[in-house]
Amino acid sequence: VLRAEGLRVVLVNSNPATIMTDPEFADATYVEPITPEFVEKVIDKERPDALLATLGGQTALNTAMALAERGVLEKYGVELIGASIEAIERGENRESFKRIVEELGGEVARSVICNAADQPAGTPKQELERIALERAMAGAEELGYPVVIRPSFTMGGSGSGVCERDEDFDRMVEWALDQSPTNQILVEQSVIGW
After folding, report:
1. What is the span of the domain harbouring residue 100?
2. Strand, helix or coil at 77?
3. Max Cα separation, the chain?
């Protein structure tokens, strides 16, 4: 569609088997990992006007966020199109998304945001994870089992799971914290069977 409109398209795709690597889809195709480091090299070489990350799934969204945070998009004058950084942030930050739904009058399951973002810079990662785990345990105690554990800044349920008992809780929280690039999770009341 973009090429049909006369736009030059540069495609970065980590999967060589996909149809999107077909030459009719792009003027230049890079079959490489979708990482901030590599995409910055492509931007430096190709000098695009815009980046459309919404067609590349979670990996592309995370890469776009990282490029924006590192100042790469601004450095090369690349506009993010399809979704703004603010829209991606609001959609992927569990706390922000919950607040938006509530402000619009929607109902959400009771939940507790758990992280250690309030700790001083330089706090060891292990200590941050311990604090987040303690907060998650308090949240599960408040909500009662079963609970759903959801990492922030992942889509498609990656890292999420239903925890029905204490014995599985620590392992599931640690996994979810590892999946979240911000070490933030949501412990949510389960509505299974509701």
Report:
1. 93-189
2. coil
3. 58
**Count: domains in the chain:** 2
Query: d(Cα 41, Cα 23) in Å, to the nearest integer?
Result: 21
Q: Which two tokens stand for residue 47?
A: 């000098």
Phi-psi label, residue 153: left if phi above 0, alpha if psi -120 to 50, beta otherwise: left
Output the six-digit token pair for 24: 């009719």
| pTM strictly above 0.90 | no
Q: Which of residues 89, 116, 149 is at a domain's end?
A: 89
Please choose, from the candidates 14, 44, 42, 49, the residue with its C-alpha nearest in 3D space to the C-alpha of residue 28.
Answer: 42
Across 38-67, average pLDDT: 93
Q: Say if residue 81 is in the same domain as residue 160.
A: no
Q: In what order do the strands lie in the sheet with 111-114?
A: 111-114, 185-189, 147-151, 161-163
Q: What is the pLDDT of residues 53-108, one digit of tens each?
A: 998 888 899 899 999 999 999 999 999 999 999 998 888 777 788 889 999 999 88
Query: Last residue of some domain: 89, 110, 142?
Result: 89
Token digits of residue 160: 């999420």
Give me the CATH number covering residue 75.
3.40.50.20
